[in-house]
Amino acid sequence: MRPAGPLRSLVASYVCFDMAGWPPGRHRGLPDGTLTLVVSIGAPLSVRRPGHADLRVAASIAGLRSGPVDIVHDGTQRGVQIELTPRGARALLGLPAAALAEGVWTLEEVAGGRAHELTDRLAGAHGRAEQGRVLETVLAGWAVDVGYAAPVDAFWRRLTGCEGCVPVTSIADEIGLSRRHMSQLVRAELGLAPKTAARILRFGKARRYLRTGRTGSLAETAVMCGYFDQAHLTNDWKQLAGCTPREWMSQELPFLQDQGQVRGRG
Fold this sequence. Notes:
Layout: E1 11-19, E2 25-29, E3 35-40, E4 45-48, E5 55-57, E6 59-62, E7 69-73, E8 77-84, H1 86-93, E9 104-106, H2 107-111, H3 114-123, H4 127-142, H5 150-161, H6 168-175, H7 179-190, H8 194-212, H9 218-224, H10 230-241, H11 245-252, H12 254-259
Helix pairs in contact: 3-4, 5-6, 8-10, 9-10
């Protein structure tokens, strides 16, 4: 779902999830062009962080990143996942997205005592409709108009609009900046190089194509999502997801494998 009104530029989407009866395992949270806020309802989240101690908390937030985040579960997961835009990081959390890039934190570390307002109110909500109302009410109360750098906003709108498939040099020309100046502005605000941001968005497009079965093969997905070929697609998946597309589909989307909607070597 997407929020209404002023929150639409701050929150890309949110998903209420309630899953039970799965075998214990892990969910691989893949990179995308958003900061991911997950609130667990019931048992705490267990989040693995390479190079750091695991988190076991009621709510976590992952910044823009170029690698997966693993959530370990016992077969049951219930909560809400909120995808914040980089603009939303400033307006809702009071931080540039760069401050959270490539990391995962507890929501309390980032938002302070406000985190309990969100987790407590969501825990008391009954049903998805009420969860959605609580989410939008709480986040609307957090929102502050802090302004946003116009060149970065223009860059991000163009890049997300093409899902990473237009060369960043072309975008720099369109908005009237040198490549170097644009790179400095984007890195300062997002914490990622422009080319890395484009790569992550292109990867996200490919993931959505595979998830929905919009193409008949991995080779076709590669062409539709701006890759040179299937090998280029697979190499990006190995680096950004830590697995091949075939492995991801087998682990996360067994129904696609069973129905044979996507074919080709991973």
